[in-house]
Amino acid sequence: MNGISRRTILTTGLLGGAAASCTRKPEMTPLTSPSEAAGGIFAHGVASGDPARDSVVLWTRVTTDATEPFPVVWEMAADKDFTDARGKGEAIASAASDWTVKAVAYDLSPGETYYYRFRVGDAYSPTGRTRTLPTGPIDKARFAIISCSNFPFGFFNVYDLISRQEGIEAIVHLGDYIYEYGGDGYGGEMGAKLGRPHDPAHECVTLDDYRRRHAQYKADAASQAAHAAHPLIAIWDDHETSNNSWKDGAENHDPASEGDWQTRKRAALQAYYEWLPIREPEPGRAREAIFRAFSYGDLLTLTALETRLMARAQQFEYSDVVPTLKTPEDIERFRNDILWDPSREMMGAAQSEFVAKTLKDSVASGQPWQLIANQVIMAEVIAPDLRPHVTEEDIVELEKQWSSARAFVQSSGLGLPTNFDAWDGYPAARERFYDIVEEAGSNGLVVVTGDTHTWWANDLEKRDGSPVGVELGTHSVTSPSPYRKSFLGGKGAEYALLTNKENKSVRYLSGEDHGFIDLEFRRDGAHAKFMAVDTIESPSYNAFEKAAFSIKRGDGHSKFSGVKDVSLKETVLFYKS
């Protein structure tokens, strides 16, 4: 390395000063997000989703002062001009569903692109483009992986960038499609600065609140462009209901002032199903059970998980755990017994059975790849010791954003996970998932993850160190990363490098630059491009490729085979043993 030792590269700048970037200047593409959304009675645009081999869900909403239900016509064609008609039908708009309209277009051909629109009288909606699942032999499948679209934190330039892509099979949204906070909560200050405050101004609790919040997000022009361009496969995380939600509650839910959790959850889920192009649950199936699978020819199966509302046990909080760790024995007991309690569930029995069957069927059919759409970080990530590097002023500032910040910093040298609200907080459940993958015989597992507003490339390993597959974490559409440069008193980027250095499973970690993962599968390998935008504080932005990773199958599992477009220091960390 031209006389520069590996040790020098890894130690220079890690929470001790500026890190050398050693990265080529990325090629920038100047772009501007659309400033005008759809108008008239179809002011929230159109969307499609949950594709199948012969059908797809079509969605719109009618802006009306009507009081009685009325029909809305949908049309499907093979061309933009609708000269080659492929289907037509009616759906009912009514106040019961907030005047949203969902129709399932059937009798379609597999692996085909279609165009669709809606009509009320002589008024037509914008035209959308969608695609059905392919069957038989296919050469490739390409997805746009996104997460965490918080309206006040910035312009949806990432949505706009995705809308410009050709050859995308589907947008896979990994959760936090909306955020529930009010103007005095997370993102409120930035929303006021950018002229993007949340509507309603208060936190979402009731059905009307959640409906208005979804309506605000769907009224955004860039969001409309992305939804019209590609079908959507969506799973929720926590903010579609409330922050750090679990089976029986949420961190950001106060029963004393906000009422019964189950009532709030039902309201949030009703609005979610109304406002997204997602199939309604089958009779007898709970709305929480959104886990489902999508098969792409002979190449891969995408399995979408639900890890929030069906079975998840309550999260540990650093502020509760740390005061109990008074001796080395306390720490060992927490790490090995309490944290690994087998009753701490994530998926539940019904979902585990579904995932096991789906993966087995995929492997048995000869598909080389199994793609998992997942909400929270799956790889083990242990917190590095921050105490020598973080000042009291840093902690005080951090506490304004995170109530457990002091406890986290004080305990960061104890070998505990960085994040309890991830699979690290449920390691026995994670091990059970890995057992499912192993028993299915999968040697092409790729997990895509949202939640953290951070780019990740991680190895997935069982407790005994045996490899299972790889994980790719996407940054956010707008939400800020805890690993961004301005975090921890300006030490956020160094914190990312230190976390990477101290964790064998972490190959790449960066909190800079919002974006999405452009993920393409072929029979002989997969390629992930981390596509980024340079700003979300203006609708005028530059787009660029931030990093790229190659993935191959071999030795009974998927694994990373290469990296490009990252700094010298990041390259060394990627190849660390």
Q: Overall pLDDT, averaged?
A: 94
Quantity of strands, as a count: 25
Broad CATH class: Alpha Beta
The share of residues in extended strands comes to 25-35%
State the helicity in percent bands: 10-25%
The best one-word shape is globular
Largest sheet: 8 strands, mixed
How many domains? The number is 1
Reported CATH architecture: 4-Layer Sandwich
What gap, in angstroms, lies between the N and C termini? 17 Å
The secondary structure category is alpha+beta
Poorly predicted regions: 1-12, 16-22
Spell out the blueprint of helices and strands.
Elements: H1 6-11, E1 29-32, E2 46-49, E3 56-61, E4 70-77, E5 85-93, E6 100-105, E7 113-120, E8 123-124, E9 128-131, E10 140-146, H2 157-163, E11 170-173, H3 188-194, H4 207-218, H5 221-229, E12 232-234, E13 245-246, E14 249-250, H6 255-258, H7 261-275, E15 292-296, E16 300-304, H8 318-321, H9 328-338, H10 349-364, E17 369-374, H11 392-399, H12 405-410, H13 427-440, E18 445-449, E19 455-461, E20 467-473, H14 487-490, H15 492-502, E21 506-510, E22 515-522, E23 525-533, E24 540-554, E25 557-564, H16 568-574
Helix pairs in contact: 2-5, 4-7, 10-13
Overview of this structure, please?
The protein is of the alpha+beta class and 577 residues long. The chain has a single domain, classed as 4-Layer Sandwich (Purple Acid Phosphatase, chain A, domain 2). Helices cover 24% and strands 26% of the residues. It contains 16 helices and 25 strands. The strands form five sheets. Strands 1, 10, 11, 12, 22, 23, 24 and 25 form an eight-stranded mixed sheet that branches. Strands 15-16-17-18-20-19-21 form a seven-stranded mixed sheet. Helix 2 (157-163) packs parallel to helix 5 (221-229), helix 4 runs parallel beside helix 7 (261-275) and helix 10 (349-364) packs parallel to helix 13. It is globular. The chain starts with 5 loop residues before the first helix and ends with a helix.
